[in-house]
Amino acid sequence: MTSAVAYRLVVGVLPWLTIALLSVPVVAGVLGALAPAFGWLPALGGERLTLAPWRQLFAVPGIVDMARLSLVTGLVSAALSLGLVVLFLGSFLHTALYRRIQRWLSPLLAVPHAAAAIGLAFLLAPSGWAARGISPWLSGWAYPPDYAFPGDAWGLSLILGLVVKEVPFLLLMSLAALVQCQAGERLRVARSLGYRPLTAFLKGVMPGLYPLLRLPLYAVIAFATSTVDVAMILGPTTPSTLAVSVVGWLNDPALSMRFMASAGAMLQLLLTLVALSIWWALERLVARASRGWCRDGRRQCGDRWLAGMAWLAMRTVLGLMMAALAGLALWSVAGYWPFPAFLPWPPTAHNWLNAADDLVAPVWQSLGVALAATLVSVVLVLGALEAETQRRRPMRPWAQLILYLPLLVPSVAFLFGLVMMQAQMGVRPGLGAVIIGHAVFVLPYVFLSLAESYRRLDPRWSQQASSLGAGPWRVFWRVRLPLLLTPVLTAAAVGFAVSIGQYLPTLLLGAGRVVTVTTEAVSLASGGDRRLTAIYALLQLLLPALGFMLAMLVPRYVFRRRRGLLPGAD
Amino acid sequence: MASLILDDIVIHQGQQRLLSLDTAVAPGEVLTVMGPSGVGKSTLLAFIAGFLSPAFQAQGRVLLEETRIDTLPAEQRHVGLLFQDPLLFPHLDVAGNLAFGMVREGTRRQRRERIHDALSSVGLEAFAGRDPSTLSGGQKARVALLRVLLSQPRAILLDEPFSKLDAARRDEIRHWVFERVRHYRLPTLMVTHDEADAQAAGGRILRLTERGTAMESIDQEKRT
């Protein structure tokens, strides 16, 4: 009896803890940056409200360019990614190509942003692998050519880097959404009425699919307009994007710069809001414009041509990603590698051996933080989903919004405020703060990847168990959890990968005391040592890969004599 | 054994009255409830077992002789439930499935012997360590009933328990199940839309009408 009460208590409390973890840091962080932006931060001697930080901010040379750059790269990369994903799904849904690509999505998604960006930078740089591939036989270059890429003033390389990471994310989000909006049935109806595949998709499926993709898309826009690590590696430097500049001001040794940096963080928040509003307005426009188009009865709209484009673009995106990662591996074993040579020969283990001693600490810190943040998130998510099952009602819309809150508010804006609050309250930055900071970003991904399987589990399993006399704890531990072991471990691996890839929370909340493979990789990327940078970027890949491998192998081992639970069984 | 008493039960879905029922099932009696799908047969079982969805509201009492059970949580009602799928836990072996429902009394060895005896009684003694997914449909059905019986229920609910068995096995399993519940003198409530199930049960048949609001009872001639 008491254990049932304890269960109800735990299951009642965990959802609220989840909501608190997702919302309190974000809201507190934004408020924490808002006050100093208007001059109020007693710890640094700011005791009256003033507009001085804003005046200082708008006097920064190039501030308008910074804001424009963030806005344009963010919106363009989101639009390109969405366009590519929609054309691809429309042309290739339910084909063999689609299934092949589907299998690569989770691993691609697990590649940390910084690692992908570093790989792309090394691939496309003047002395990069791409230029070597066409030199000198095609290009005639005997020396690295002189072009500014990555880091071009237009932000094209930044856009490319963002698209490469956003396409897998949106594709993965579409998988669940397609099922939810009954895309298969809609397509069949439209096809049987004579619509070509892509037109059938655009006219028949998109109106149902888009609303389900809206929140993930907004998260993509928020990320793209405010990313720090990707923009540091691939973005232009004169000027850099707003978010990169804000982090620079924050790390300025002159403490008075922090007031201006706070104003900058608030400007970033406004900028992301503006980007979202622009997108929202465009959304309305497109919806209105396509209303007539949807019912004009035309059965095709350049289907072949667009399908060809989608095929080419998707191949390019995936090919770039693969080549970027392969290039990292080459750089990590390169000795002397003069320009037009396509492969570093002979390969050497020297770089790895030299770096080995310095790798140990960042690897352990990464592992520790990631494991702790993942554990916290998995426990909270299980509690929240268990509560949902007990109440037998679906999630409310506002809860969905809270889930996306840390992904919608630019991290630089609220993390920054948290740092200011830390300073004001005298909390020492360090491991604890970093773990909580990571969990804020890990939790939404764990939830999104686990929720579907959890909700789909046949309720009769628990009913059967409790009719056999099992109390709620026993039903959870002995029945629901074992049956859900595979999805729970996969969700944990996703969360682990997200944590390994975190740059800004580690940097800001750890105040330089917590050094992970990602912070090392990003700070090395701006230096000249490609070999060492490649090693850290590869570690960023290897740790999540290890997590996914365990998530795959553990259930196979535990259930090796249980055919009913092995993959491939129904 | 005690009777299962369904005292003046009325189940509503929103404003609409789904079904009403007032009867008692004697020890060893199999009461069959029939009716077209959608009249609330499974809802009735969910209510008795303790899983009524919040979409429904129920009035009335469920008693095992003197003890009121509809106020207890599902795991304390001692009402055994058999679905149309055997629902053997795929992560446990056959013995583990049986042990899951057993009352925690006696030594480990005694418990193991009880499991062995139960399996022997249906000719499955060699299957204790087997993965349930390697069993045939009939074998799974037998293990599922053994699991319920070993949990020492005081009443049994059958939710179309034979509909997924192939025709050759169905008769055999059906008779074995009814023989067992009579042997243990368990009050049993069966929901089905298979006329043959009702005939084989040989007890009273309650038919829920299409509108679900009324319910008539046809007493068959009692077989002994």
Which properties best describe this structure?
heterodimer, A: mainly alpha, MetI-like fold, 2 domains, 23 helices, 1% strand, B: 224 residues, alpha/beta, Rossmann fold, 4-stranded antiparallel beta sheet, 31% helix, disordered C terminus
Question: Would you give an account of this structure?
Answer:
The complex is a heterodimer of chains A (570) and B (224). Chain A is mainly α. Chain A has two domains: 1-16 and 357-395 and 423-560, MetI-like (MetI-like fold, Orthogonal Bundle), CATH 1.10.3720.10; 67-239 and 275-331, Orthogonal Bundle (MetI-like fold). Helices cover 76% and strands 1% of the residues of chain A. Chain A contains 23 helices and two strands. Chain A has helices spanning 2-37, 52-58, 63-92, 96-110, 113-124, 129-133, 156-180, 183-192, 197-226, 229-234, 242-250, 257-294, 303-332, 350-391, 397-408, 411-425, 431-456, 459-467, 472-483, 485-501, 504-510, 517-525, 530-558, and strands spanning 40-41, 46-47. Chain A has a two-stranded antiparallel sheet. In chain A, β1 and β2 form a beta hairpin. Chain A is globular, with a radius of gyration of 25 Å. The relative contact order of chain A is 0.14. The model of chain A has no long low-confidence stretch (mean pLDDT 90). By secondary structure, chain B is α/β, with parallel strands linked by helices. Chain B has a domain at 4-89 and 152-218: Rossmann fold (3-Layer(aba) Sandwich), CATH 3.40.50.300. In chain B, the strands form two sheets. Chain B has a six-stranded mixed β-sheet with strand order 6-7-8-3-9-10, with helices on both faces. In chain B, strands 2-1-4-5 form a four-stranded antiparallel β-sheet, covered by helices on one side. In chain B, β1 and β2 form a beta hairpin. The longest helix of chain B is centred in the C-terminal third of the chain and has 17 residues, at 167-183. The chains are: A mainly alpha (570), B alpha/beta (224). The A-B interface holds A 4, 391-393, 459-461, 463-472, 475, 478-479, 482-483, 485, 559, 561-565, 569 and B 49-51, 53-54, 73-81, 83, 85, 87, 89-91, 93, 100-101, 103, 131-134, 147-148, 151, 153.
